[in-house]
From TrEMBL:
One cellular-component annotation, GO: membrane
Domain SLC26A/SulP transporter: 17-379
Protein name: Sulfate permease, SulP family
Keyword Nucleotide-binding: no
Organism: Celeribacter neptunius
Main localization (coarse): membrane
Transmembrane segments: 21-41, 47-63, 70-87, 93-110, 122-140, 160-186, 193-210, 244-266, 320-353, 373-402
Gene Ontology BP annotations: transmembrane transport
Location relative to the cell: Membrane
The keyword Membrane is assigned to this record: yes
InterPro entries: SLC26A/SulP_dom, SLC26A/SulP_fam
Bilayer topology annotation: Multi-pass membrane protein
Amino acid sequence: MTPKILTTLKTYTRAEFGSDLFAGITVALVALPLSIAIAIASGAVPAVGFVTAIVAGFLISALGGSRVQIGGPTGAFIVVVAGVIATHGYGGLVAASFMAGIVLIIAGLFRAGQLVRHVPEAVINGFTIGIAVIIATSQLPDLLGLAGPFPADFIEKLPALFAALPDLNPASLGIGLLTMVLIWGLRRAFPRLPGLIVAVALTSALVQILDLPVETIRSRFGELPRALPAPHLPALTLDSMRELLPSALVIAFLAGVESLLSAMVADRMIGGAHRSNAELMAQGWANIGSSLFGGLPATGAIARTATNVRAGGKTPVAGIVHALTLLAIMMLAAPLAGYLALPALSGLLLLTAWNMSEAHRWPEYLRGRRSDLVLLVITLVLTVVTDLTVAIGTGIALGLAIRLSRRGVEDPDWTPRDK
């Protein structure tokens, strides 16, 4: 369970530092708008996304078992975080994240890192697509410039959004669509450059130059802080721990699964091998650290990890540079981030949701085993109309039953795709 950084630093070179420096700065510029957007979509203030990317991003790289893993807040947590905040308040979320960190450390100590391979792929695909659907619908109000609030429930939200369409703000819609087009174009034209921040910055600047009636981070939430908050322990009692335990277990499960899948993707990209139990331990300390600073749950981020590899990241130093770069931006340029347009961030998250859904793989799902397709659809529907606890529990139970019914039939190997 030795952190990967201790191994890589033994033979670290100046050339590797140059590659890590460029990659770390590049990933930081990608993580900046994405972390803020995820925090807003989760029902939290933008600053906590910033804090999470800095604190958790540093700890995941410093203590993790992957050479190139980048950690921080991810889209997979939006649904869980929003639900916990709605039910228990933000203090409850922080306490649940702290508890999830302890669960992950225990899982690492008991060497549970290989168990992710036994979670059925159909369950992972089902709740990932379901989360993508929920994220996409949650971003429609800001994209369309509609005044809320709107119901949190998916079934109730759709007719409410339809009823509000006469109040659509064309300027907000235009900025959101333009951001999406720019992100798509820049990714293809300059794949190694941080097209996310360029696209969001350009459209946000357009809002200021043309004085468009479009909400920004500053107009809705005020100024972003220019320093990390003081760390403090979350308030926990025996009753609150009992009440928050289901949420903590879901956070721990998602953090563990997504981080290990991300590490597997990274291994495939660099031809390496991660240390799964060290990675679980790092996720645990990262979630504890993030909660101490009032941040969100965190995990390894597949898209940011892939960006790190494509930008030339070689060792965990790149992830540490990414966290320190974000801290420098917070201290020196936080007021500028306040001018980011909310429809631009919504467009960014809509593309994130589309990438999460992996639409290019849907024909593959349809051609696969009928039982796997049914398991995927059940998990997807339960994720959208109930919650992740029910969806994941039901999906894993059904997957286990299906696997037992296939005794003697070899399951095909699978590897997660780069989301």
